[in-house]
Design a protein that fits this description.
229 residues; alpha/beta; Protein-Tyrosine Phosphatase, Chain A; 5-stranded mixed β-sheet; 3-stranded antiparallel β-sheet; 10 helices; 48% helix; 11% strand; globular
Length: 229
């Protein structure tokens, strides 16, 4: 993996996001056996949430964590409408895959699920949208969410190289119009959060539309916010 990080330490309502309980990543299919051992034995990983589609899972696998007792949850975010820019694409994920995302938020509200990691292929788009939704519900400011999203940028050269290599191995053409040199910028996620407020009034209102209750949000905050000074 080249894009694994702890979401802990970000400022949240009443404190900060706890460290060592919630991670985001690129695909765990690329984990080495040593990576898997560290995740299980040192980080105490309890749950993997995989946002990749079935084709990705079947053709790229799950990596060595598939042979561990860590719980595996498949929550595919695929077949989402395109848009003129990434902010619009992320809004489409919230609108069209809201039920899937909300289900993962409810899952993360359970202490039994943690520590947990969620990932897609690159750990940028689908992972970024779920991270933004969770962090917004924790009261993390938009600018901090956008800055965390942009932390993927240094990993993008390695991710682009891997995309080319995997496409060659699977005999897949590079999709027309896909820029394999781009890097995420904070403004992309900031724009998506702004559009979500304009459409739903805020992430809390979005979550409520897809069945996330006040009790779910309270449990999420209890599980993920460190209130110690």
């Amino acid at each position: 993996m080249v894009n694994f990080r702890d979401l802990g330490g970000l400022p949240a309502d009443g404190g900060a996001v706890k460290t060592g309980v919630l991670y985001r990543s690129d695909s765990l299919a690329y984990a080495t056996p040593a990576d898997a051992k560290r995740l299980v034995e040192r980080l105490g990983l309890a749950t993997v949430i995989d946002l990749r589609g079935q084709y990705e899972v079947e053709n790229l696998g799950r990596g060595p964590l598939a042979d561990t007792p860590v719980a595996y949850v498949h929550a595919p975010i695929v077949d989402v409408s395109g848009a003129d820019d990434l902010a619009g694409h992320y809004l489409a994920m919230l609108a069209e895959k809201g039920a899937v995302l909300a289900g993962m938020i409810k899952l993360l509200a359970s202490a039994d699920t943690l520590p947990a990691v969620f990932h897609c292929e690159a750990g940028c788009d689908r992972t970024g949208v779920l991270a933004a939704a969770v962090l917004s519900l924790l009261g993390v400011p938009d600018d901090a969410i956008a800055e965390d999203y942009a932390l993927t940028a240094p990993a993008m050269p390695a991710i682009h190289a891997r995309v080319r290599r995997v496409a060659e191995q699977l005999g897949l053409p590079t999709r027309p119009g896909v820029d394999l040199e781009w890097a995420p910028e904070a403004a992309m996620m900031a724009g998506a959060l702004k559009m979500a407020r304009e459409r739903w009034g805020g992430m809390r209102e979005w979550a409520a539309e897809y069945g996330v209750s006040d009790d779910d949000v309270a449990s999420l905050r209890s599980a993920l916010i460190d209130t110690r000074p």
